[in-house]
Design goal:
Helix content is 47%, strand content 10%. By secondary structure, it is mainly alpha-helical. The chain folds into two domains: 67 residues, no CATH class; 132 residues, Arc Repressor Mutant, subunit A (Orthogonal Bundle), CATH 1.10.10. Strand 3 and strand 4 form a beta hairpin. The protein is globular.
């Protein structure tokens, strides 16, 4: 699987070119957290990729799909599939395959609280097993985050709702997020900081090929402790 360096990253170019000596294979690319990097790969390096005898499967969030519909990347994708949220029974099977050591009731409860999102289900299972968190405490954390955000005001509630329902961390520079909220990047950054100061969300740094690292925010799974 390819990593997510920036568009101008020489490391990305080197990785792609190194595939020319590999036997034809299936290459899986998770672009859910970096649509601009995906556009750089399948746009800027499109002609080079076409010369390789590999097949490519790219996963990207629905709201980020327009990034790959821009020329020249748009010509790369012949077939697209819209993956809908999983049913609770499907999530239970997915969790069971990971054999997390949880009983069937716990798996069902996690699946029902995941809103069809496999990433969220796996994160809940990780909290329950690795951090030995009680299931009820994990479920109640979201409600407590929402209550705390509501006390800060409507903007914080709106942004937290976007974050809770996303398929991964979000940044103030995410174009789809800004379009949905009707905000500027500066406004999103301000509200994210309010949520972080209240310990309702946490953050991490994503290194970029150029410039400062990008700050990504995600719900604080340990709130309010």
């Amino acid at each position: 699987m390819l990593s997510h360096p920036g568009v101008a990253s020489s490391r990305l170019t080197d990785q792609v070119r190194s595939l020319s000596s590999a036997d034809p294979t299936l290459v899986l690319v998770d672009a859910s957290g970096s649509p601009e990097a995906a556009y750089g790969l399948f746009g800027r390096l499109r002609d080079e990729l076409w010369q390789l005898d590999h097949r490519w499967v790219v996963a990207i969030d629905e709201l980020d799909w327009p990034h790959l519909q821009r020329p020249p990347a748009d010509a790369f994708f012949d077939i697209t599939f819209d993956l809908r949220p999983l049913e609770a029974a499907q999530l239970v099977k997915l969790l069971a395959r990971r054999d997390p050591g949880l009983n069937k009731l716990a798996l069902v409860q996690i699946a029902e609280h995941s809103n069809g999102n496999p990433r969220r289900a796996l994160e809940m299972a990780r909290l329950a097993v690795v951090e030995d968190r009680p299931i009820d405490e994990i479920f109640n954390a979201r409600g407590m985050r929402e209550l705390a955000a509501a006390r800060l005001g409507r903007p914080t509630s709106m942004l937290l709702a976007e974050l809770e329902n996303s398929r991964g961390p979000l940044s103030p520079s995410d174009e789809a997020l800004l379009q949905r909220l009707g905000w500027t990047r500066e406004r999103a950054g301000q509200v994210f900081r309010e949520l972080e100061e209240g310990r309702i969300v946490d953050s991490t740094q994503e290194r970029q090929a150029r410039g400062r690292p990008r700050k990504l925010y995600f719900p604080n799974p340990h709130y309010p402790s």
